[in-house]
Protein-lysine N-trimethyltransferase SMYD5
Amino acid sequence: ITAWETAEKTAQRLLGKSSLVLPHPEQCSIRKDLHQQCPRCQVTYCSAECRQAALEQYHQVLCLGPSRDDPTHPLNKLQEAWRNMHYPPETSSIMLMARMVATVKQAKDKEWWIKAFSQFCSKTANEEEEVVHKLLGDKFKGQLELLRLLFTEALYDEHLSRWFTPEGFRSLFALVGTNGQGIGTSSLSQWVHACDALDLPMLQREELDAFIDQLYKDIEKESGEFLNCEGSGLYVLQSCSNHSCIPNAETSFPENNFLLHLTALEDIEAGEEICISYLDCCQRERSRHSRNKILRENYLFTCSCPKCLAQADDADVTSDEEEEGEGETDDAELEDEMTDV
């Protein structure tokens, strides 16, 4: 997903069809009249306030100025290397790590920020390697070292010298990979939600729903699985929320910006742990064995929530019925994922 595109422009690009016209364009939340660019590098922000906040926190370090299109600039080399190593490039973006460094470099109170970043959970050396392997694939050791060298060339700072060592960089990479929260603010997904809320006559409702269903199928055929994610962010409180297969809270981005909402799904008693799910709604309906296989591969733990404990005596194999069901419900699952921010 490209940030700040209108829903119609996103659909046109993903379909490769510039003539596509979306019904109810007024339901798109993107306000291009409020967007502002950095006068030096033309990076776009959603508002003047957002641009100023970025300038004060990290953008002075990361601003490329007239070198924005220079492939030999260290930051451009870093981003290009990352794009060649990992898909989708938005996930656990190397530039999130760059912003962390830039934030410390610009800060007057550098120790405060270093302490803030240290609040995120850390892993053992073996676990860190597993996270990096998951993100980069079988060639991860060589690729990680290349990223470290480019990262150092672009951003080295004496206050953060440990982050630029092989061990420190691996830890930083694993920290972002483990704690990074995908930021789902797709204008197309938001447009779909807004259209779902419209009070329409029955015939118009059926026509609109059919149009949206076909739109997603066409996008999947042309561009692959549609992602609502524009980037990755670190949220201290959200990262403290443990997983449950029966969560009592969920994260979302209802304001279509970087602000994460943690919303209760049921009444939560004082002192009760707030849990979110690291699985999507379709994954949570799979067998205990399948759920824990996903959690072990992606988050390096086995779930012991009440649902998993209640199913502890179930067979530790994925049932034939589930395998068949997965093939039959792919389209339905995809539609749920694409419209569920």
Remarks:
- The chain has two domains: 34-181, 241-341.
- Strands lie at 36-37, 44-45, 181-184, 229-233, 242-243, 249-252, 261-264, 275-276.
